[in-house]
Amino acid sequence: MIPNVIRRVEFQYCKLHFLLRTRPLSHVMYSGSTGLVTPVADPSLLDCSRAAAQDVDGFAIISNFVSSEEEEQLMVDIRRTLRGRKYLYDHWDGAIEGYSETEKSNWSESNTPVIQRLKAVAAAAVTDKVVVPLEQVHVLDLAEDGHIKPHVDSVKFCGEVICGISLLSDSVMQLQHEEYPDRWIHALLSRFSLYIMRGVIRYKYTHAIPTNENSVFKGERITKQRRVSVISRTQPVHS
């Protein structure tokens, strides 16, 4: 059964690769229920300043990337891996409060197709060069009162593409250009969705998951509960 699943993933990857070559990221959506990749613009999930419009194609949200059943199976694996760990309120680079995390390469048979689908999207997100997803997937468990401060991920640990599946809760991601205050993007990371970050968004914009007091999207307060993200990053670029 697994080889057939892998073949379907490879086929979906080919379709996704074609779409990413011919359309901006904001026009690529994945339907987890049908298993089809189709070009569908969903502007309701993104809000940006006029100045940031030139950069927004480097960020996209793919709705319903996983189903509720796939979320449940992923969480079985994740709970087993994180069992006994307490939430931490300090981080080695000061970027996160109220979290638990791990790097994970071994997944159950039922979750392997989802992880391969995630990595296929990461590999297809850049078309002018070859990017290779890291073998290990980053799992970040953020407590209800946890938050991620504005930061840019270190180039020492990951390359041009970052893709993350959002589990258990909706949340808001705030992106801000490091040099130009008038360039900002707010993204509604809905439960079951996947976000894709590449290019100038990856390197020049900080990204953050704010506290619930500051979690607002298009004027509406979005209350984040416990949120788990499953993140694929491409290999660092060594000059």
Give a brief rundown of this model.
The chain is an alpha+beta fold and 239 residues long. It has helices at residues 2-22, 68-82, 112-124, 199-204, and strands spanning 29-31, 36-38, 46-48, 59-62, 96-104, 137-151, 161-167, 171-177, 184-189, 194-198, 205-209, 216-217, 220-221, 227-233.
Task: Provide a descriptive summary of the structure in words.
- With 239 residues, the protein is α+β, with helices and mostly antiparallel strands.
- The protein has a single domain (2-233), classed as Jelly Rolls.
- It is built from 4 helices and 14 strands.
- It has helices spanning 2-22, 68-82, 112-124, 199-204, and strands at 29-31, 36-38, 46-48, 59-62, 96-104, 137-151, 161-167, 171-177, 184-189, 194-198, 205-209, 216-217, 220-221, 227-233.
- The strands form 3 sheets. Strands 3, 4, 5, 6, 7, 8, 9, 10, 11 and 14 form a 10-stranded antiparallel beta sheet that branches.
- The protein is globular, with a radius of gyration of 17 Å.
- The termini are far apart.
